């Protein structure tokens, strides 16, 4: 696992110190070695995390006549098969790496042909030393990050935005349009990041930079189309695809561990992998105990489990460092346990498997219409789904207006049109609340509806509302939050995190599964849970999803944490963004137990911490070293 950086800038005469400074900024992504290419107006850099023989994986890697070079972050799991085809076509390899497969594959098939052949997670860039053309791509789901800046003759790309700060002609500026949507979604929800003129290469896209012009094109997308397979055959295919994917993802020259929570996703992966090392995390509070259940499962499977304990003090102390590594503000509280979990695992292993992506592919979220524990309500909701669309939507509008009663939300979300209520898994402030809270200069931004319609417009022909919601989450919540924090928190600890559920072969299976097999009166993610019973004790396959529960309410109600928050909310720079009286009132009420605005308070706090790190402290890495206790 690695990090890549590069730029094209004719106004920089001595490119070597610039590219080296950029590489140093992301040294955590690859602490073992580095490589660079300097050619004309271009410079490319690479940081390496060794999971194979270091001498064979040095980058950039060149083709036979050294007319092209590649830098690459990720893993190509089927590279040996692709390599075999390329050798038969006459290509000469100088290494046994998956990186070189990308280069020769590009020569043989072009970028689109190459992307059809490979299976993995990746962000790579290929540079043509004869023409100066640059071609790059990001993987199917956005597991690996890739950003760019293209302005006034300066083109910069890289795995992390913080490296751009070292390029002299990069203009660091806050993107004011990003703040209001962030308050609703909890993550950076626009194509343009919180840094003005810095954009993501979208998941499933590739780019070309030629003669100063940038072109970006989609090469892959998730397409849900229900098949006619029986439930039994569906379960069989799920289990087969997961086992094959875990096997592919576990190929490594170093030991592979597994992150283990109490949920079915990581448990399924762990039970199939059967690694020597598993890891779980808890906080020093009795509010939630993920680690205890994880230890029980590890014992049942005969596996070693290391359980970490994070104290309140260490958790809060880590927030500036976490936001530094994240590059953009992200108020998903699970960033904290994931940071400490990968820190814990890094003591023993370099490669770790995790369960991200299962909820999006196999309909695991309660917000897809699975809120009630009542069997009667669930059965009624299933029956209502079969009503004609017009009748069903009219019923939903009526349910929305009714006073609340047990099961109302479940019935409403089972009958309503997805576009009318679903914006993804996180909804912190509603749009009006966000607009009222920010200063006028931050009110102008894309509306929440415009943002979600970016995805919904592509699946407007779908008859299934759940499939629409899955598609939206795949392209918003998963790519911009779930996978971003998975990459950043693991890389912060120089760990390679792999996600077997997010494999294009698994996705092929998931795309064809009828919703009735996934979300029904019996459970969410039902077919996956039944498949998991082939590897797990039955009670584990049916465990309710918790995610990474974080006791932020308990923290905010302690005097010392409350005072830290209040100091930040009272700071002069906070008044540049927010109605300061309003955010202080919200915080005080949360501290005194007069409201339960913990997530709103946390979202504001996270942004202010991030802004302080990157704009007041000029992107300097916070000087803290959080510890994790081992139980």
In short:
It is built from 26 helices and 18 strands.
Key features?
15% strand, 42% helix, 18 strands, alpha+beta, six-stranded antiparallel sheet, 631 residues, Glutamine Phosphoribosylpyrophosphate, subunit 1, domain 1, globular, 26 helices
Write up what this structure looks like.
By secondary structure, the chain is α+β, with helices and mostly antiparallel strands. Among the domains are: 171 residues, Aminohydrolase, N-terminal nucleophile (Ntn) domain (Glutamine Phosphoribosylpyrophosphate, subunit 1, domain 1); 106 residues, no CATH class; 79 residues, no CATH class. The protein has 26 helices and 18 strands. A 6-stranded antiparallel sheet has the order 2-3-1-9-8-10, with helices on one face. A hairpin with a 5-residue loop joins strand 6 and strand 7. The longest helix is centred in the first third of the chain and has 20 residues. The model has no long low-confidence stretch (mean pLDDT 93).
Structural class: alpha+beta
Major β-sheet profile = 6 strands, antiparallel
Alpha-carbon Rg, integer: 24 Å
CATH architecture of the domain at 2-172: 4-Layer Sandwich
CATH superfamily of the domain at 2-172: Aminohydrolase, N-terminal nucleophile (Ntn) domain
- Give the termini distance in whole angstroms: 29 Å
Shape: globular
Q: Residue share in helices?
A: 40-55%
What is the average per-residue confidence, as pLDDT, rounded to a whole number?
93
Number of helices, counting only DSSP H or I runs of 4 residues or more: 26
Any low-confidence stretches, pLDDT <50, length ≥5?
Answer: none
| CATH domain fold name of the domain at 2-172 | Glutamine Phosphoribosylpyrophosphate, subunit 1, domain 1
CATH class of the domain at 2-172: Alpha Beta
Walk across the major sheet and give the strand order.
2-3-1-9-8-10
Number of strands: 18
Question: Strand content of the residues, in percent?
Answer: 15-25%
Binding site for L-glutamine: 98
Pfam family, one: Asn_synthase
Site (Important for beta-aspartyl-AMP intermediate formation): 356
Protein name: asparagine synthase (glutamine-hydrolyzing)
């Amino acid at each position: 696992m690695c990090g890549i950086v590069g730029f094209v800038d004719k106004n920089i005469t001595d490119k070597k110190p610039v590219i080296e400074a950029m590489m140093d900024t992301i040294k955590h992504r690859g602490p073992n070695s580095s490589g660079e290419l300097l050619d004309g107006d271009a410079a490319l850099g690479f940081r390496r995390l060794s999971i194979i023989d270091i001498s064979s994986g040095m980058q950039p890697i060149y083709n036979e006549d050294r007319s092209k070079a590649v830098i690459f972050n990720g893993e190509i799991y089927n590279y040996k098969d692709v390599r075999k085809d390329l050798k038969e076509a006459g290509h000469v390899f100088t290494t046994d790496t998956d990186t070189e497969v990308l280069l020769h594959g590009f020569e043989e098939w072009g970028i689109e042909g190459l992307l059809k052949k490979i299976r993995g997670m990746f962000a790579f860039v290929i540079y043509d030393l004869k023409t100066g053309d640059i071609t790059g791509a990001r993987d199917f789901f956005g597991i690996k990050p890739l950003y760019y800046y293209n302005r006034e003759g300066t083109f910069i790309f890289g795995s992390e935005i913080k490296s751009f700060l070292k390029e002299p002609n990069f203009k660091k500026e806050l993107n004011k349009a990003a703040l209001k949507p962030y308050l609703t979604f909890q993550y950076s929800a626009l194509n343009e990041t919180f840094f003005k003129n810095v954009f993501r290469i979208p998941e499933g896209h590739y780019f070309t930079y030629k003669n100063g012009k940038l072109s970006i094109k989609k090469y892959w997308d998730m397409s849900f189309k229900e098949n006619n397979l029986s439930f039994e055959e569906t379960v069989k295919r799920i289990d087969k695809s997961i086992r094959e994917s875990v096997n592919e993802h576990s190929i490594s020259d170093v030991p592979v561990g597994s992150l283990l929570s109490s949920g079915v996703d990581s448990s399924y992966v762990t039970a199939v992998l059967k690694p020597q090392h598993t890891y779980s995390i808890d906080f020093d509070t009795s509010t939630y105990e993920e680690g205890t259940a994880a230890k029980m499962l590890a014992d049942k499977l005969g596996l070693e489990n290391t359980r970490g304990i994070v104290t309140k003090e260490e958790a809060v102390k880590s927030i500036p460092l976490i936001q530094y590594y994240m590059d953009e503000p992200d108020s998903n509280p699970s960033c904290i346990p994931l940071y400490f979990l990968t820190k814990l695992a890094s003591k023993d292993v370099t490669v770790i498997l995790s369960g991200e992506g299962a909820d999006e592919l196999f309909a695991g979220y309660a917000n897809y219409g699975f809120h009630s524990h009542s069997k009667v309500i669930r059965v009624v909701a299933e029956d209502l789904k079969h009503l004609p669309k017009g009748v069903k939507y009219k019923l939903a509008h009526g349910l929305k207006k009714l006073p609340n009663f047990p099961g109302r939300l479940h019935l409403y979300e089972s009958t309503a049109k997805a576009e009318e209520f679903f914006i993804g898994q996180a909804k912190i402030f509603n749009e009006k609340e966000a607009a009222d809270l920010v200063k006028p200069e931050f009110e102008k931004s894309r509306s929440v509806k415009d943002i979600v319609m970016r995805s919904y417009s592509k699946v407007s022909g779908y008859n299934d509302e759940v499939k629409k919601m899955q598609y939206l989450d795949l392209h918003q919540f998963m790519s911009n939050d779930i996978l971003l924090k998975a990459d950043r928190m693991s890389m912060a600890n120089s760990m390679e995190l792999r996600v077997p559920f997010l494999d294009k072969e698994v996705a092929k299976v998931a795309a064809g599964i009828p919703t009735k097999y996934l979300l029904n009166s019996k459970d969410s993610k039902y077919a996956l849970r039944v498949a998991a019973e082939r590897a797990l004790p039955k009670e584990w396959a049916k465990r309710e999803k918790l995610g990474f529960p974080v006791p932020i309410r308990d923290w905010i109600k302690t005097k010392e944490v409350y005072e830290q928050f209040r100091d930040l909310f009272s700071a002069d720079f906070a008044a540049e963004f927010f109605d300061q009286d309003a955010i202080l009132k919200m915080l005080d009420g949360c501290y005194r137990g007069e409201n339960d605005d913990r997530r709103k308070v946390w979202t504001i706090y996270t942004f202010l911490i991030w802004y302080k790190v990157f704009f007041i402290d000029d992107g300097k890495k916070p000087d803290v070293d959080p510890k994790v206790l081992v139980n």
